[in-house]
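To the structural biology subgroup,

Please find below the input and predicted structure for Mandelate racemase/muconate lactonizing enzyme family protein, which we are adding to the shared reference set this quarter. The sequence is reproduced verbatim from the submission form. If anyone notices a discrepancy with their own records, reply to this email rather than editing the shared folder directly, so we keep one authoritative version.
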Amino acid sequence: MEITDVRVDALRVPLGTELGDARASVTERYWIVLELDTDAGLTGTGWISTWRVPDLLARYTREFSDLLVGADPFATTALGEAMRERTLYYPGELGFSAHPRSVVDVACWDLKAQAAGVPLYRLLGGTDREVPAYCSRLDAGEDADTVVERHTTQADRGFEAFKTKVGGRSLAADLERVDALRAALGDEAELLVDANQAWTVAEARRAVAALAERGVGWVEEPVSAYDVDAYRRVAAGARVPIATGEMFYRPERLRHLLDAGAVDVAQPDLVRGGGITGLLNAAHLAESHDVLFAPHVHYAVSAHLVSAAPNGLYAEYIPEYDASPLLAAGPTVRDGNVVLPEEPGHGCRLDPDARERNRLDG
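Predicted structure (tokenized):
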């Protein structure tokens, strides 16, 4: 099989309201969609979801076209190395250039599963078509009443696990929000919190201790993502799991935390972390340290990996990040689970009408 054509579209989807975390807020979401046609009549799809610079990401994704046309999509390792070599010095392997490389990897794995005639999760070794999910909300700027309303609406859809934003305000205010959610959702609900690196080590220690008393399932990114020593200090004596990993562009970042015993739930990001290939490596690395795997966002593809990973815990479902309005086909969310498509590949196909309605240059 050979790649014959590369298409890249930049799409805009308004959110209808202002939403965010402890560090940023947005009113619209952008999607960079890559489609790889082949001489076998199959098309592989991948996408980048972003808050910023969609035009630059689309342009940079197109920069790999000469490496892709004529290439074998089964050769994901060789393609990954070729793209990495091109970006190693300029603009640099990490950061911006990692996103397009990952989206190519996702599209190639989609083609491999289609060629094998099986859903992606089956190709990866998974057996469970339904994957547990938690509902995550971009609710940092909202008051406690609105936070409760947003999460109870998702509870009515069957979710039993929920994540809310903390950090960026007083600890007392954060605890008030958590207490309000606990009262509304009940003692059986899994309640997770995400600080988006908002705290110092001293602040994180106080917050983690207080949140442990409230039975939260994990505290995510309590301190700077790249400070291994800070994570070690926060994790020492913590009575609640510590989760992190979404900011990592290479597996050694995760390995440093694992070796330090500073992380309990690994959360690599599909787009930052190397696509399907990168997340498989991260899941295996976490498993070797008896650490759980719950990848960051991109549920439509990440759920395939959660199904396949022995240490898979949750897929993260964010309603505001849901690509479904752009898709002609894809997974469904039912009773708090991601139900993966049975068709070959990852099952997500861009709707042609949605492409035209939402194109940035349309």
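Summary notes: The chain has a mean pLDDT of 95. The chain has two domains: 3-117, 122-349.

Regards,
Lab coordination
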